[in-house]
Amino acid sequence: xxxQEKEILVSVQNVSKKxxxxxxxxxxxxxxxxxKSTLGIKINKDxxxxxxxxxxxxxxxxxRGECIGLIGHNGAGKSSLLKVLNGLYAPxxxxxxxxxxxxxxxxxxAGFNPIxxxxxxxxxxxxxxxxxxxxxxxxxDSIIEFSxxxxxxxxxxxxxxxxxxxxLGFAIAAHLEPDILIIDEVLAVGDLGFVLKCFNKIDxxxxxxxxxxxxxxxxxxxxxxxxxxxxDHGKVEYYGNDIGKGVQLYYSKFSNNDExxxxxxxxxxxxxxxxxxxxxxxxxxxxxxxxxxxxxKKPLLKSPAIYVEFKDKDQKPIAAxxxxxxxxxxxxxxxxxxxxxxxxxxxxxxxxxxxVGFYNKQNTDTMLRIxxxxxxxxxxxxxxxxxxxxxxxxxxxxx
Length: 399
What we know:
Layout (H helix, E strand, L loop, with lengths): L7 E13 L2 H17 L11 E13 L3 E5 L6 H8 L7 E6 L3 E4 L12 H11 L4 H15 L14 H14 L4 E4 L8 H14 L4 E5 L3 H7 L2 E6 L2 E6 L2 H11 L7 E4 L3 E8 L5 E3 L4 E9 L8 E8 L4 E7 L11 E9 L6 E10 L6 E14 L11 E8 L1
Parallel strand pairs: 3-7, 3-8, 5-6, 6-7, 12-18
Antiparallel strand pairs: 1-2, 1-4, 8-9, 10-18, 11-13, 13-16, 14-15, 14-17, 16-19, 17-18
């Protein structure tokens, strides 16, 4: 079936949503709107004092089998738009048409009754989606097995960790096979193994589902989305099917602030980055060095391990270098410098991006991850496609 013939499951036309800047104004305007609505008086949809547009004039359509990615900095309006789409907020302007059953993972624990057990919440969530008890009984074993929390399934949700809530929430939403699946940044909480498991499930669902996906992870966006919306201050900055272009606009727009820091545990702070490249250009077969210096903000026994990931212009990972050497770390406010010499690079011609992450070698927990920390171009006289193993010499120093 051609794309234009697929069923449109989500239609968003000129949707806007406004909020008040403080609780007093919110309560005041809310009460006035209720009174006007009761009396049949038309409610003013324009901004009033101390109000702002969290979402402004958003339009898009999504067909079955398609995935649209929403990207933008914190406060850009992504989560507010998702809550409008999911019916948690009513739009102040515009029209939304959603066809079929909707599964949503918008906030940690959203939709769960904290005093009920995980098993009881499965039935509750399913009933909201329109499934009968018989339908749930046919799927409950696979839901529990997928969530990998079998031993805690009869424990009250209020005792679950954030990761356990994500596991159960995704398992419910995915196994009930909704027509429309909405996923916010909640998958960032899960461990890597479970996240990969979720994406395999998404691949399985996508042919029969319309997916709306929000993430700060551009590789995740690039992996599953065929359309992308870049938002800023509630408005659309870019909308199209060129994922690479949307991602580059995202990075260029926020390159001078902290938005490229996608995870920060508060243990480390990047204070400098350097490279010996000339004009950010790599010559094939010519070694180059990347240097990163971090400040220790909380006590550590050993220096964190570091990984440097190389991605192409479409944000697809193509190679990585890991530095697992350790040195003793004794005091806070010390600085650690990592020098990574990349040897004999044989990248194909084109533009590339570097991400860097620092993690605890003992438990693999990420301490700091920064995307798009460097951009470079591979130049040469002619294109070559040669498989190669990326090598590196590493040096770690403590000051």
